[in-house]
Amino acid sequence: MNNAAAKAVPHSPPFPPPFPPPPTTIHYPLPFRLAFAVLRAPPRPPRTKSRSHLNNAADLDALVQDVSARTEGAGKALILMTTGAEVTAYGPGSRFGFVHDTFGYAAADENLEREATHGDAVSFEYILEMQPDVLFVIDRASAIGAEGEAAAKILDNELVAQTPAWQNGRVVYVDSFAWYIAWTSLPAFFQVVEDVEAGLQ
Hints:
Elements: H1 3-8, H2 30-40, H3 57-68, E1 76-83, E2 86-90, H4 98-101, E3 106-107, E4 120-121, H5 124-130, E5 134-139, H6 140-144, H7 151-154, H8 164-167, E6 171-173, H9 176-180, H10 186-198
Parallel strand pairs: 1-3, 1-5, 5-6
Antiparallel strand pairs: 1-2, 2-4
């Protein structure tokens, strides 16, 4: 091959780079995000001294019965979950229906979809119309370690502020990880019971 022919061959690097450049944002798989959420979460307060010894299924059953015996006459409860700016609601027979079905809280709305995994999408006007005496609020973004506006900020508006729950200080921002991710574990359900009991105060 003469020099002219050699110059006509386009120049290329001896081999291509083995990997593409790293992304500016790393998108971790869901299990890693859940683990990071646990690590970032503030430490939970220790269980009240009188209950610090409770650690088995029999203890849990007794605690559930104790709380259930005090919900009659405690008013109507509504369970909400926030995901970013979206708000969904749950009622009896739903994923979080144990608030009504097990603990005995009256439902602010008996007609919510029972099979909807992420609840029925609702508006702030709906929440006001239901006039709940107690609000149990699950922050899904916090539970899975995703970015999103905090539930407390989303619900802090003039419509929700007119509900009996808000006016009487009975809005319970539950332990979202325990309710949404780990509620079938014994330690998590102890936390669920304490959150449900907080609605009585």
